[in-house]
Amino acid sequence: MSSPINIYGGGTPGAAVTIKGVDHSGNAMEATIEGTRPSVYAASNAAGNELFKLQAGAGNLSFENLQVNNTGTVFRAAGDVSNITIEHVDASNVARFFEDYAGGANKTATVTGLTIRDVEVDGFSKGVIRLQYNSSNILIEDVRGDSLKQDGDNFAIGVHLDGTAHDVKIIRTSMANATDTTSSSYWNGDGFATERGVYNVLFQDTVASGNTDAGYDLKSTGTTLVRAIADDNARNFRIWGEATMIDSVGLDPHKRGGIASQAQVWLNEGAKLTIDGGSFTDSGTNTAVFYNNGTITVSDVSVSLASTAKLVAGKALTGALTTVEKLVPTGPYSLDAGLNVPVVGSLLDTLPIVLAPVVTVPVITVPVIAAPVVSTPVAEAPAASVPVVVAPAAPAVDTPRDSISPLHFVSNAASETIKATSAADSFYFNQASKQGADSIIGFGATDLLMTAKMLNDGNKDGIITYGSNGVLDLGSKMGTVKLEGVNAGLRYLGLVDGHFAYAAASVRPKNAVEGKFGVADTLAGDAGDKKAGAFFFDSALDQSLGHDKVTKFGAKDIIVTTTRIGGSDAGATVAAAGGVFSLGHDGIDLGDFTVTDTAGKSVGALEFDGERVVGDTHYYVYSAIGSAAGLAQLGF
User: Fold this and answer.
1) Greatest distance between any 2 Cα atoms in the chain
2) Strand order from edge to edge, sheet including 490-496
3) CB within 8 A of 476, min separation 6: which ones?
4) Distance between alpha carbon 179 and the CA centroid of its chain, in Å?
């Protein structure tokens, strides 16, 4: 496409017009659209074409099953529009994915009723979503945006709310690496930003990481953050208006350049922030945990900071911190030494489950709590009543750590040998500086390799194999890791807490289709049920698998899980609860999936075909009731 598709109309309430990718039989299938934006980004390039241009009066429209590449703006509302849904759409190398910007004779481009769900944007220079004017009734859910550090397009912001936009819910959404270094004095680049005039905004289970300015830059009122995570931004949380944070987490602020400060929480003069629960952890010496020019009220909040860093700069806090833990300094910022967890204990043990199921929090009724300022000052050193833990020196390398269960290992600059435990272990590599030549002994079926940057995947099939030296390369001069006993390489499974997650490739059954962590995937079989298919849910990894759909499920197909979803004896019937099959176990909610058959009808029950054990992995197989499919087609 070299010019926009102008849309002036649409459907009616309850009967939307759907624009989607389909195969020759009309079944859902991703359609790929290429634009005019140069495929290799440079700031001097032309932005590229607009694709779908929604003119005034367009509404009751749904867009699905699209892959859009090398395009300036994928969706633009040029006038007032309503009831727009965009889901199962991915994009790469764009200036923006969605924005409203009035054009022609239109004075406004207000969007009333917008859902953007299950969208992935890899490579953006301006942003993923910008909404302004009086836009309202907005749901942004299961969206992942990674700028890939496209620099030079002023004011890069992942999600940006302006004007009087209101009643906005942003759920299970991550924005990473927004980069803007065009000014030598101040570097911009925010994960999420709201401007003055914006109100009633909910962030729930969101992640902002690696942005050159703020993770969350919020000037709005009536703003609530529930289990929000900010990691590796210059200032993780930057508050100008009124906000409440609940069980939220700040990790490792990192100022990459410019004149900005480095802080976990930064408040402007007159701003009000209530922090209820959560934690802030960092071992960088340049970090001020609370840079307070306004009013910060804290309750049940834990802090870990470098022994020489500032706890509070500016005004004293209201309330009392639960604990203040002193850490061995690792340089100006945590990642400087490849460490981002306390030397004593593991921060990752305290992290909330980011991709938890949505709780009901009506945006329009969320109160803004503004507690009165208490005159008692809070010193930069913790008060006598607050326990202070001085961490010992880091453990020696090459020390087996199988006594820890589960293990959360974070690599440092040395070459280390780590022994995995029998639990679901996580091995973190931050790739901010050279991390040595590491070896992991006993990397198992339930273990994860977590990286701050994606590993090189030459053919983009999601499988990472070893180099000629038998080790995984962590990036240019960033070190290597050898996984002893893992011969088939790793498979990419998506984002967890802002890190890219990889698991053993050999665990996935042969030719099985598998979704990503925490996003709403659609796993489709073939329309004519001509081939035997397998749909795989690796629930034993104990990570959220999102709310997935299995479509075109035929008599030859099977569903495979690694924890039991029901049925104790082969032949037992497993019924869906409300049309949904749950993937949780032992009280852990890991997401769910629905099933529709080749005719598009909902499948309310499956047949349990039995269990097969391969190595250390238990596979549970389910098929359509009465079908001949079963354990026999579980291949490796």
Assistant:
1) 74
2) 408-410, 426-429, 448-451, 499-504, 490-496, 463-464
3) none
4) 18
Q: Which candidate, 133, 81, 137, 130, places its Cα nearest to that of 108?
A: 133
DSSP class per residue in 461-495? SSEE---TTSSEE-STTS-EEEEET--S-EEEEEE
The 605-614 sheet, strands edge to edge: 512-514, 534-537, 558-561, 617-623, 605-614, 573-575
Q: What is the pLDDT of residues 439-480, one digit of tens each?
A: 899 898 999 998 888 888 888 888 988 876 778 888 766 788
Res 589 pLDDT > 50: yes
Tokens in use for 429?
A: 């590599």
Question: Each residue of 239-255: pLDDT tens digit?
Answer: 999 999 999 999 999 99
Collapse the DSSP code of 368 into the 3-class scheme (helix H, G, I; strand E, B; otherwise coil) and give the result: coil
Cα distance from N-terminal residue to C-terminal residue, the chain: 42
The one-letter code for the residue type at 46 is A
pLDDT of 587 reads 59
Measured distance CA(325)–CA(23) in Å, rounded: 58
pLDDT in tens, 165-197: 999 999 999 999 999 987 657 899 999 999 999
Distance separating alpha carbons of residues 211 and 230, to the nearest angstrom: 10
Question: What whole-number percentage of the chain has pLDDT above 70?
Answer: 86
- C-alpha dihedral (160, 165, 169, 174), degrees to nearest 10: 0
Residue with tokens 């992995």: 617
Q: With 70 as the cut, is the pLDDT of residue 151 above it? A: yes
> At 131, is the secondary structure helix, strand, or coil?
strand
Total residue length of the chain? 636
- Strands 448-451 and 499-504, bridge-based pairing: antiparallel
User: Nearest-CA neighbor of 295 among 274, 312, 324, 277?
Assistant: 274
Locate 195 and state its tokens: 């401007």
Instruction: Say which amino acid occupies 204.
Output: Q
C-alpha triplet 77, 79, 80: angle, nearest 5°: 100
Mind listing the pLDDT tens digit for each residue in 94-132?
999 999 999 988 999 999 999 999 999 999 999 999 999
Gap between the Cα atoms of 245 and 188, Å rounded: 23
Place of tokens 């995995």: 420
For residue 415 the two structure tokens come to 């070459």
Report residue 419's pLDDT band, with 50, 70 and 90 as the boundaries.
Answer: confident
For position 519, what pLDDT does the model report? 83
Pairing of strands 490-496, 111-131: unpaired
Q: Side chain identity at 111, as an amino acid letter?
A: V
> What pLDDT does residue 431 have?
66
Residue 387: Cβ-neighbour burial (10 angstroms; 0-12, 13-18, 19+): exposed
Per the CB < 8 A criterion, the answer to whether 140 and 170 are in contact is yes
> 125, 41 in Cβ contact below 8 A?
yes
E strands of 26-135, at which residues?
31-34, 50-54, 59-77, 81-100, 111-131
